[in-house]
Write a structure and sequence with these properties.
With about 230 residues, this protein is of the alpha+beta class. The chain contains seven helices and nine strands, in the order αβββββββββαααααα. The strands form three sheets. A three-stranded mixed sheet has the order 1-4-5, with no helix packed on it. It is elongated and about 80 Å long. The chain starts with a helix and ends in a 13-residue tail after the last helix.
């Protein structure tokens, strides 16, 4: 019985030593288990020509003629597997694209950050600097992330129809418009108070607001667009 216990203890010690040696081997760089971050974007065993741009490395030619079709030789990155039209494993392939830089792509081919700190209702219309990123399946020349000046175009959930309904010249809603309900709805509480205590400017202010809201000149106080 004692011999069995001793042998079990020896096996446990041997396992610990082997585990320590394997971990030391990995940490010392003998074997890397890290998966490149781009692999998560790369579908396994898909067509090489349809891989996202982050999964391949292409020999681009910046002297190509803008707007003309061009072909580039590409190679898949390490740890990426793909196939050709015959479902055979492939490493080198050719992609067809249009010669243009990423910032010259149509708006549907990239995504940009939104800004909620600029005024959409202003004259002239305000712009903001957005950070834009090309969609994964689009190939282009140059940096895939670039800045671009865009018009302020965001909404806070205010409805144009509701604002207009609160300030019309009709027997059903003249009271609401006269008490500044439209201005309060848009978040313009100062104007709403002025309209409330002046009874809509004796009706004149109410008439003016109908026109201003109707043409979109008066918008939400946060500077957003109507929905």
């Amino acid at each position: 019985m004692a011999a069995v216990v001793v042998s079990l203890l020896g096996v446990r010690r041997l396992c610990r030593v082997l585990l320590f040696l394997s971990q030391f081997y990995i940490l010392s760089g003998g074997e890397s288990t890290d998966i490149p971050p781009y692999v998560m974007k790369c579908p396994s065993n898909g067509l090489c020509s349809r891989l996202p741009a982050d999964c391949v490395e292409c020999k681009t030619n910046f002297s190509c003629v803008y707007g003309k079709p061009v072909t580039f030789d590409c190679t898949v990155k390490p740890s990426v597997t793909c196939v050709d039209q015959d479902f055979k494993s492939q490493k080198n392939f050719v992609i067809n694209m249009t010669c243009r830089f990423c910032w010259q792509l149509p708006e549907t081919d990239y995504e940009c950050s939104n800004s909620t700190s600029c005024m959409t209702v202003s004259c002239p219309r305000q712009r903001y600097t957005a950070n834009c990123t090309v969609r994964d399946h689009i190939h282009c020349l140059g940096n895939r992330t670039f800045p671009k000046m865009l018009y302020c175009n965001w909404t806070g959930g205010y409805k144009w129809s509701t604002a207009l309904a609160l300030s019309p010249v009709c027997c059903c809603s003249i009271t609401l418009g006269g008490f500044g309900a439209d201005r309060f709805y848009l978040g313009q509480w100062r104007e709403g108070l002025g309209k409330l205590f002046s009874f809509g400017g004796l009706g004149i202010w109410t008439l003016i607001d109908v026109l201003l809201i109707g043409v979109g000149y008066v918008g939400p106080a946060d500077g957003s667009l109507y929905i």
